[in-house]
Amino acid sequence: MAWTHLVVAGLLEIVWAIGLKYTMGFTKFWPSVFTVIAMIASFYFLSQALKVIPIGTGYAMWTGIGVAGTAVLGIILFSESAALPRLACIALIVAGIIGLKLTSSD
Fold first, then answer.
1. DSSP states of the chain as a string?
2. Residue 18 neighbours by CB under 8 Å, 6+ apart
3. What is the residue extent of each domain of the chain?
C-alpha cells in the first residue's frame, strides 16, 4: 500500500504544480483552493508512504513523478518546448524512477 500512496502523492504533486499556473499568484480563488487542497493531500499521501519506504527513495520518487508529469503537461497544456533533448531528460527522470522502484527492498 505504501507504493500506491507514493504514486498518488506524486500524481497530486503534478496537480498542484500545474494548479499553481492557474492560481495567477494565488489571486484566483477557486484555482487557489483546489491547488492548496491538492498540496495538502499530496503531502498526506507522501507521509503515509514514508512510514514504510526509505526517505531517500520515497522523496526522490515523489519529486521525480512530479517533475516528469509536470514537464509533460507543460508541453501539452502550455505549448512548452518538446525539443528532443528536453524529452530525453524527461525520459532519464522516468528511468530513474523505475530504477529506484526496482532496486528498493520494500
1. -HHHHHHHHHHHHHHHHHHHHHHTTTTSHHHHHHHHHHHHHHHHHHHHHTTTS-HHHHHHHHHHHHHHHHHHHHHHHH-----HHHHHHHHHHHHHHHHHHHH---
2. 70, 73, 74, 77
3. 2-103
11-59 tens-digit pLDDT = 999 999 999 999 999 999 999 999 999 999 999 999 999 999 999 999 9
Question: Which residues contact residue 50 at a Cβ distance below 8 angstroms, ignoring those fewer than 6 apart?
Answer: 58, 59
HEC-encoded secondary structure of 19-35: HHHHHCCCCCHHHHHHH
* Nearest alpha carbon to residue 22 among 33, 12, 8: 33
State the cell numbers at 46.
507522501
Q: Maximum Cα–Cα distance for the chain, whole Å?
A: 44
As given in the structure block, the three cell numbers for residue 63 are: 519529486
